[in-house]
Amino acid sequence: MEVFFIAKVWTDNSTFERLEEFKYLGTTLTNQISITEEIKSRLRSGNACYHSVQNLLSSKMLSKNLKIKIYRTIILPVVLYGCEAWLLTLWEERKLRLFENMVLRRIFRPRRDEVTGECRRLHNEELNDLYSSPDIVWVIKSRMRWAVHVACMGEERGVYRVLVGKPEGKRPLEKPRHRWVDNIRMDLQEVGCGYMDWNGQAQDRDKWRTLVSAVMNLRIP
Asked: pLDDT per residue over 186-200, tens digit each?
């Protein structure tokens, strides 16, 4: 991985190099506060994992249910490592769905056309019907489960202070970037609850668990 030194930061007797990009605990961090490079890195790792088991996914000796379990237990966790903190754009959602559909087409194999008799690849709608589990983007939306844990933390916890804190200064005049809490609100809008104070609602774990279940059960046609 190529990195660039752009400045140094001194504190007490220690010196820290300032980088445009680096890895921390397996996650790619950039100075652009963007998750794009991390998702690209995750998809590369997912592709490598997929190619290592593609013979199993295309084997006629294994059932489709077992192949799905292989995907969900071996490949999917590699792609979604650290996804609780992701801020997804529509472009990134599309890339993730394209990857998942590639794997699912390997699992469910081409279908023979009833009219022409020729084999053809399955359409996205057909994959959605065959794959009964929430798709990859809705799995990411399970970050709402992590949100409730953060919201219920005490004010002395660093993670909670980062969540509710308001940095000094003003945001740029151009269209502001989405924040993590903005994605949580967008998830709630999907189930008609975008108006609510999600931080307050998260204090009731039972109600929040119901909301998470509703979001997770949404399907993309």
From this structure: 777 766 665 566 666
